[in-house]
Write a sequence for this structure.
């Protein structure tokens, strides 16, 4: 029997996701949740922000609405719009509105990718008012008591033009994420992919060394996610160098010289 | 036979027998050309940065004939310009890679983190406890070498032993490289095959230490006198090579090996027949001298007798000045790289060769100069009134000029001669600059690309969107009622526009740009600059050129249309407008080679140059047109407004320039003035009232600022 589609606001994380705590981020998140202070997760891509949100959703047993922001995302896309129907027009709630009505965690991923005018609609939701104005309907929606807003962004590669407005960022508690230290990353790789410790250690070494290249904005360092991909390919029998080529080098850059430089590191580390 | 190489002056890399043979046939360039540093530097520079976590410029050493061979520093690495040690090209590449891994391993494996307090992993402590700071030494490593009476010998011994340790460390940490590394070491050993013959006992022991550090596995053939010390040296090397060895192990081994070598007599080369050393049983550990610091030696014998000869290994580096304290590696920001001068607010030194006319505030020349063609001016007012020019040549253009006294344009007042700069034989400056700072280009390019999509447009009649397009919706309804197929495209959305930028960059190359910039403090940086500029100082024009190279490389990647024009002038009839790269021109080696021909020239007549650039931009159909004016001084030409008497030209020039900038704005071109004149504020305020301008406090900021400016303007 095919599974029933799940409504966006009814999605729950049923099984415990693997998440290795680096510091006190879970305790902070829970404290902020109890006080209903929205949370901003900062950190480079693939370092575990989304996994952390899933983990916390699982712990809190709430529902999770995820909205991936992009530059064409408009306030209408978030709040809702009138659609034409046979009889006239018909209002349809956007994902944010549905989350506000039903409660649970609403996660705006890569929030700065959205345009600034889009983001200001969350202002009234993120202070003491907890209201969402539905402008086109002339209504104001009071948030469900369990409604909790989490946003994430990557301060590394977005341009300053796309920076968060101060009036937005100062509504959040900010938890900073970084790539895990080499030994933690090794544990994550072992746990996540089941590869042998030696390979996990080498991959963690590769990650740490290539990340040194992002200091000058050359590239966004290889994320833990990329290393996990490489480890999975190796577990499937792909040779380590080849796995790193397709999962790490080519995933990071199209620039031939940069790719060649990273490849030299891969070749040095793996036989 | 006694060849002695002082510390720091490295002996040149011995050539491989293969190359020597080819050289004798006179075609060593063609026999097997090998690998050039130029070819590997971009890729291996990245590799080095990843492995070491540091930035360094990879520079070619001066070759074997260079009397001034610099040891590496924390920021510069010297490697041979070409390596042709192996027949197989890839092996020559690997040679460079091993050499860089070795250098990186010094940082990653902690050579410079030596600490007196830390214990060695495999050795009992012989070192006393010392307080480097208390001794006035900047680092523990530096203090360590004060323990030895023969400090230079100790540094040589430590260098070899530490090289062994980091090589082993690197082979273990980079398994993929281990095999290539072994090949490079084998090659180095092969060159030293006959080095042992005819050496004094001390030199022979030194050579055996070097060969052991390269992994020699054949028992050396030496006279019986050396057998015990050799066994001891080999035992030391095994311990240092063991896993887990730290820099402190190298230090302890240095104390011991130094004692062994210093104990050897250094005179007789012939001291008995050679026989293979018995490696079993291994040497006993000690006894070792316990008195450290070592008592001063009797130096009557002379330095040469006291020293031992260490022939360097080509792929390894010398520690040089790095034994003193170094700053730990942090993220190196763009500013730090660009800032070659101290921002102490002092005036840049004036160069001796700057002509008097180059000094911005100077009074006008009392008499017309030789290249001023207007000797009919003084006293003949009527000539000015009708002094219109005509153009009879190709690439010669006539522009008006604004006379603020009469509040009207002077028709056909300036002749602009447009030309393309000549190209030098090769694009040396361009290549050297890119090699030195090329790693910045991707960053610059990315920042330029980020602003690629600026601005939004409302687009009607879309199949999806934020709002309903009322007109389209009504039309659709009407169609439905009328029984026609309705149109589904009833939404409105705002979509980003594509990037569409044309940039004209006007660069002042008047003779005042020959002024020197305050010299760089760091010696290594000076050396690097000398490589790029071929001289030990930089002028304002050099900075302008560096900025242009980086910007050009980035713009090429972004794909904007751009032109770079240099202007100077000597009178209104002869304003030179030279294209470094015309807007229609494609980037090529010819363009790149023009940087080498850029020289300071005459004076500045800004107004005409701006009008000419505006004329060129007018013909372009871009949505965003930018005009950036890069100047070091005032808009000052010899005969600018001369008819109004001495001292009037500045005022006249300012007004004309301002008028030209306003014309640009009327032509929907965004002008921006960037000046590096520290006194520029005063006149610019009047000139650019209501226009965008900026004065750089420090000339050295120019490259960084120019790039960020272009981003900001196009946004």
């Amino acid at each position: 029997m095919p599974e029933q589609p799940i409504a966006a606001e009814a999605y729950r994380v049923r099984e415990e996701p693997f998440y290795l705590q680096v510091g006190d981020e879970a305790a902070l998140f829970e404290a902020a949740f109890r006080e209903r202070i929205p949370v901003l997760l900062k950190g480079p891509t693939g370092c575990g922000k989304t996994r952390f949100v899933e983990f916390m959703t699982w712990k809190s047993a709430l529902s999770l609405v995820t909205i991936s922001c992009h530059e064409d995302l408009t306030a209408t896309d978030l709040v809702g719009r009138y659609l034409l129907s046979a009889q006239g027009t018909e209002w349809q709630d956007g994902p944010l509105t549905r989350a506000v009505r039903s409660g649970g965690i609403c996660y705006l991923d890569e929030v700065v990718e959205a345009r600034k005018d889009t983001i200001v609609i969350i202002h009234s939701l993120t202070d003491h008012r907890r209201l969402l104005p539905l402008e086109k309907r002339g209504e104001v929606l009071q948030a469900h008591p369990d409604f909790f807003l989490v946003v994430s962004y990557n301060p590394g590669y977005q341009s300053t033009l796309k920076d968060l407005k101060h009036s937005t960022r100062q509504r959040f508690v900010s938890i900073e994420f970084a790539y895990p230290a080499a030994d933690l990353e090794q544990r994550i790789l072992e746990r996540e992919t089941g590869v042998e410790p030696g390979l996990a250690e080498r991959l963690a070494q590769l990650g740490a060394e290539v990340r040194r290249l992002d200091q000058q904005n050359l590239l966004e360092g290889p994320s833990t996610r990329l290393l996990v991909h490489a480890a999975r390919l190796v577990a499937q029998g792909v040779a380590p160098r080849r796995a790193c080529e397709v999962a790490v080098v080519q995933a990071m850059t199209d620039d031939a010289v940069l790719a060649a430089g990273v490849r030299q590191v891969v070749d040095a580390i793996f036989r | 036979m006694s060849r002695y190489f002082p510390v720091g002056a490295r002996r040149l890399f011995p050539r491989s027998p293969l190359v020597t043979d080819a050289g004798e046939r006179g075609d060593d360039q063609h026999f097997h050309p090998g690998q050039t540093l130029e070819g590997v530097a971009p890729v291996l520079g990245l590799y080095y940065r990843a492995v070491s976590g540091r930035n360094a410029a990879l520079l070619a050493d001066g070759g074997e004939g260079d009397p001034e061979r610099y040891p590496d520093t924390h920021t510069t690495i010297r490697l041979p310009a070409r390596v042709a040690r192996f027949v197989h090209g890839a092996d020559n590449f690997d040679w460079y890679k091993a050499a860089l891994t070795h250098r990186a391993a010094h940082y990653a494996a902690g050579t410079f983190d030596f600490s007196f307090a830390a214990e060695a992993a495999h050795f009992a402590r012989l070192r006393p406890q010392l307080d480097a700071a208390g001794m006035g030494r900047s680092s523990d490593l530096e203090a360590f070498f004060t323990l030895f009476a023969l400090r230079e010998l100790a540094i040589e011994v430590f260098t070899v032993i530490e090289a062994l340790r980091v090589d082993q460390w690197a082979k273990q940490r980079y398994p993929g490289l281990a095999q290539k590394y072994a090949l490079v070491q084998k090659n180095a050993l092969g060159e030293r095959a006959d080095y042992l013959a005819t050496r004094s006992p001390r030199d022979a022991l030194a050579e055996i230490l070097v060969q052991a550090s390269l992994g020699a596995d054949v028992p050396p053939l030496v006279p019986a006198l050396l057998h015990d010390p050799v066994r001891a040296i080999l035992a030391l090397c095994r311990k240092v090579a063991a896993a887990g060895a730290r820099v402190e192990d190298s230090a302890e081994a240095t104390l011991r090996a130094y004692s062994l070598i210093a104990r050897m007599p250094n005179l007789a080369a012939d001291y008995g027949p050679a026989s293979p050393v018995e490696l079993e049983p291994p040497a006993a550990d000690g006894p070792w001298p316990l008195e450290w610091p070592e008592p001063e030696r009797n130096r009557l014998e002379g330095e040469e007798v006291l020293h031992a000869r260490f022939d360097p290994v080509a792929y390894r580096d010398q520690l040089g000045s790095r034994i003193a304290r170094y700053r730990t590696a942090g993220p190196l920001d763009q500013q730090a790289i660009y800032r070659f001068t101290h921002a102490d607010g002092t005036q840049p030194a004036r160069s001796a060769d700057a002509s008097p006319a180059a000094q911005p505030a100077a009074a006008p020349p009392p008499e017309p100069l030789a290249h001023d063609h207007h000797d009919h001016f003084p006293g003949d007012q009527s000539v000015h009134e009708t002094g219109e020019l005509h153009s009879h040549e190709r690439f010669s253009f006539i522009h008006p000029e604004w006379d603020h006294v009469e509040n009207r344009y002077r028709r056909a007042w300036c002749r602009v001669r447009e030309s393309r700069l000549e190209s030098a034989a090769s694009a040396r400056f361009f290549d050297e600059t890119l090699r030195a700072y090329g790693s910045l280009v991707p960053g610059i390019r990315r920042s330029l690309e980020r602003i690629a999509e600026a601005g939004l447009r409302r687009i009607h009649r879309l199949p999806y969107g934020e709002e309903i397009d009322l007109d389209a919706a009504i039309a659709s309804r009407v169609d439905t009622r009328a029984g026609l197929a309705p149109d589904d495209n009833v939404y409105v959305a705002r979509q980003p526009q594509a990037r569409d930028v044309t940039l004209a960059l006007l660069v002042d190359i008047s003779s005042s740009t020959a002024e020197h910039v305050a010299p760089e403090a760091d010696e290594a940086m000076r050396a690097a600059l000398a490589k790029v500029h071929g001289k030990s100082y930089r002028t304002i024009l050099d900075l302008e050129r560096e900025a242009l190279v980086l910007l050009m490389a980035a713009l090429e990647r972004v794909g904007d249309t751009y032109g770079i024009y240099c202007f100077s002038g000597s009178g209104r009839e002869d304003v030179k407008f030279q294209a470094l790269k015309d807007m229609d021109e494609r980037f090529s080696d010819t363009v790149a080679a023009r940087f080498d021909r850029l020289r300071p020239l005459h004076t500045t007549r800004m107004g005409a140059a701006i009008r000419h650039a505006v004329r060129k931009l007018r013909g372009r159909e871009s949505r965003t047109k930018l005009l950036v004016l890069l100047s070091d001084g005032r808009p000052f030409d010899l005969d600018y407004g001369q008819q109004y008497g001495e001292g009037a030209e500045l005022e006249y020039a300012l007004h004309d320039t301002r008028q030209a900038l306003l014309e640009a704005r009327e032509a929907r071109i965004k002008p921006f003035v960037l000046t590096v004149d520290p006194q520029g504020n005063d006149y610019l305020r009047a000139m650019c009232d209501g226009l965008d301008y900026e004065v750089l406090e420090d000339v050295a900021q120019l490259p960084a600022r120019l790039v960020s400016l272009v981003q900001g303007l196009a946004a």
Summary: Residues 44 and 168 of chain A are 20 Å apart (CA to CA).
